[in-house]
Queue: 2 jobs
Job 1
Amino acid sequence: MRKLLYAGAVALSLLAAGCGGAGDNEANRVANDQVNEPTPGEPSEYPSGTVAPSTGVPATPTSPVQATPTGPARLDAASTSLGTVLAGVDGRTVYLFTKDKGGVSACTQACAAAWPPVLTAGTPQPGSGVRADLLGTIKRPDGGTQVTYNKHPLYYYAKDRKAGDVTGQNVRDFGGEWYAVTAEGKRAKH
C-alpha cells in the first residue's frame, strides 16, 4: 500500500511540474497560433488551394487595429502590390467580406478576432484619394460603430504585419471571401 501511495505522489508531482515552467511560453505560442487557424468547416485558403501561411501574429484584443477607437477613423488610398487600395490605422490595408449582405456585418467573435472591424468614434474621415460620399457606418452587434465604404463593412486582417501588406487578399475564411477595397469601393482584382 505504501508503494502505491508513493507512486501516486510521484505521479502527481510530475504532473504538477509539467503544468508550469519554461514550457509555458511555447504552449502560449502554440495556443495563439491556433487562434488564427481556420476551424473545421471554415477553411482559409488562397486561390491555389493552399492553407494561408501563419505569420505568427496573434489576434489579440490589444492589437492596435482592435483597440477601442479614441476618435474618428481615417481612411487613405495607399499604393500596394495590388494597386491602390484603402488603408486605415498605421497604413494597414482594409478588406471587405463577401458574406456581408445588406450593409450588415457577418463577422463576429472568432471571425472579428482574425478580421478586426474598422471601428470609429465619430464620423469617419476621408483621407487622400478617398471619396467622402462612399464613407458610412453601421452598428455592430457588440455596440461598436464600424466604418463602411460603398456600403461594405470594412475590416483589417490580423496577419497583415505592416503598412502595405495585403496577405488577406482573396482568402477564403469564415464562409466567404476577403478582398482589399479600391478607392472606387470595389474589391481589388489581383
Job 2
Amino acid sequence: MLETTLRQISLVMSRLGGGMLLAAALLVAVEVSLRMSRLVIFSVGTELSSYALAVGAAWSFAHVVFERAHVRVDVVSQRLPPLPRAFFDVLAMASLAVVGFLLTLAAWTTFATTLALDTHSNTTLATPLAVPQGLWVAGIGWFTFIAAYRTATAAAALLRRDLAEVTRIAAPPSAEDEASEAALDARSRMEAES
C-alpha cells in the first residue's frame, strides 16, 4: 500500500515535470515566432524554460528510481553469484540515496540563502527565485526520500535473503525484463488498435 502510494506520487510529479517542459517548449516556440514577426521584442521563454528544466528533471528523479531506469554500469555484478550481486544492488541504491542527500543539502542551502536575501532574477520578470528553487528542492528532496526508502526495503529483503525482492527493488532491468516489457507494450498497442 505504501509503495503504491509513493509510486503514484512519483509518477504524478514526473508527469507534472514533463508538462512543465512541454509548456516551456511551446512558450519558446511562440515567443520565437512572435519575435521573428517583430510583434514581441522581450524574452521570458528562456528564463521560464530554465526553471522548467531544473524543476521538471528534479521532479522526475523519484519515478526513475521506481522504474529502475537510473544508469548503472553493471559489467562486474552480472557475473557474480546471486547473493553478492544482491549486496551490490543494495549498495548501489544506498549510493544513490547518499548522492541525493548531498544534493538536497546543497539545494537547501541555495534555497535558504535565496529566501533570506529575498533574491529576484535580474530579468524582465524579476521572478522571486525562492519559487523555482523551492520547487527544485522539493523534487530533489522527494527523490532522496524515495531512494532512501527503496534502500531500506531492499536491505530488509537482503537480510531476509529474499533475493528476488532485492532484484525487483534495486537491480537494473535485465535484457529479458526489457524484452518482456517491450512485448507487453506491443501487445497492448495491438489490442488497442483492434
